[in-house]
Amino acid sequence: MQRSDKSKVRDSNFELLRIISMFMIVILHIGTHGMGKYINISNFLTGFNEVFYYFIRSLSIIAVSLYVLVSGYFLTKSKFKLKKLVSLFMEVSFFSTVIYLVNVLVGNVDFNVVMFFKSLFSVFTGGYWFVTVYFVMYALSPFMNKLIDHMDKKEHGNLIITGLLVCNIWQFIYPHALVGVSNGYGLVYFLFLYILAAYIQKYEFLIKDFNRNLYLFMYFFVAFINSLLIYRTGLMDQLYSYNSPLVLIMAYCLFQYFKKLKIKSPNINFASKFVFGIYLIHEQSSMRPVIWKKFGIIEDIISTDGNLIIFKMIGYCVIVFISCWIVSFVIGTIYNALYKKVSTYMLTFLKS
Q: What pLDDT is stored for residue 351 in this prediction?
């Protein structure tokens, strides 16, 4: 998940997109692990609030796809480094284990040897589903790049069409676990997004390019259509699938919008450096119920006046986002210092 200093300076637009995507993830989780877990949204919210809720989630449901597209966009032109794969494992393990042990120390959970080792090896045990799938995708990236490099534009386009038909049509309408798309949670879909990102890297756009503001308009318009469809049909689970055709269109449009932005900001790059930790903190298995239940966030939201309930939900998302970023900065700084010392020691040991 780490980027070189050169890319950070050059691509502040994508670093901003990572930050926004992480905030989208927090919004999704306050719905999935918070409100959606304790109340029936369609019964609790009515009229404008219900549509507004669906609209906010529709805007945010593209977060995972955006992360994969951004990663694929750069990985397709970068050299695979085993050190980065090991570093990802160590960073995730450090964050997960520290958060777990802190929760044990403050009495939120009882110490359990099995849970401790699951935290320590969370990349392999699936403690963070996204990291597990991303880890495998990164391991396969050098082989994917060789495949992509040996395809011409027509072959690459035909592969994308095949992926669309399989992942976003067939597996959206009639999903089957054997195919491995898993509503967009599976490795197959990540690899498809990787191939799509590589196509954008090489050829800029699919079929036809548009003005960046038109891309932004299409993103909001399709999100509005998606929210209305959910409101009218009640097909929330299906239309919020990561491999939904509408979700893919929204992700593509917002990605293209940010690709066309020209931003150079050391502040954005600095903030982005610790944004991945927000996910590692608030999605840690022992931390999730603490944030959404023990702190009383959901109880406060659902007890709010109907006209303000969605705004309060967004407000809490901002609080969780900023709070977790601060914790990520602290843990990340400690991890970086330790990682640097261990790397220096190992390098000295190997040379001796």
A: 65
pLDDT 10s digits, 82-117: 999 999 999 999 999 999 999 999 999 999 999 999
Amino acid 10: pLDDT: 56
Determine contact, residues 300/34, Cβ cutoff 8 Å: no
Below-50 pLDDT ranges, the chain: 2-8
CB 277 within 8 A of CB 95: yes
The set of long-range contacts for 180-189, using a CB threshold of 8 Å and a minimum separation of 24, is 181/243, 183/241, 183/242, 183/243, 184/64, 184/65, 184/241, 184/242, 184/243, 184/244, 184/247, 185/129, 185/133, 185/242, 186/133, 187/133, 187/136, 187/137, 189/242, 189/243
Q: Are 236 and 59 in contact (CB under 8 A)?
A: no
Q: Which of 24, 53, 39 lies closest to 231 in space, CA to CA?
A: 53
DSSP state, residue 244:
-
Distances (CA, A) of 164 to 80, 175, 193, 313: 27, 14, 10, 34
**Conformational region of residue 176, where left means phi above 0, alpha means psi within -120 to 50, and beta covers everything else:** beta
- Scored b (16 or more CB within 10 A) or e, 151-169 reads beeeebeebbeebbebbbe
pLDDT given for residue 347 in this prediction? 65
Question: What's the pTM value of the predicted model, to 2 decimals?
Answer: 0.92
Query: How far apart are the C-alpha atoms of 68 and 65, rounded to whole Å?
Result: 5
DSSP state of 182: G
